[in-house]
Specification:
The chain is built from 2 helices and no strands. With 100 residues, it is mostly helical.
Length: 100
């Protein structure tokens, strides 16, 4: 009777001190997990760099409330083109369409 109780106590102590069988991992599995974690960290770093690049591009572009660039003068030769109105007008609207 005493031997049975001693054996049972030894089994319980052994189970408590050792890792649970379902959670034990081999050295190869741990290396693979570390490799996966490192790959995830590298991917996250690349994504963060891309986000910083995008942020820089967005900050560099003009905002909607910013004043637009001054209009530039353009000289157009409309000789032979159909014209409505005064040919010497200060402002000319040109409507270019391509009917295909």
């Amino acid at each position: 009777m005493m031997k049975g109780a001693l054996l049972a106590a030894l089994i319980v102590v052994t189970m408590m001190l050792g890792p649970p069988p379902g959670f034990a991992q081999t050295a190869d599995e741990l290396k693979a997990l570390r490799k996966d974690v490192e790959a995830l960290k590298e991917g996250q770093t690349a994504i963060q760099k891309q986000l910083q690049d995008i942020k820089g591009l967005l900050q560099a572009r003009p905002t909607a409330g910013a004043p637009a660039a001054a209009p530039q003068e353009a000289v157009l030769n409309l000789d032979g083109a159909p014209v409505k109105g005064d040919k010497n007008a200060k402002v000319t609207l040109v409507d270019f369409t391509d009917y295909q």
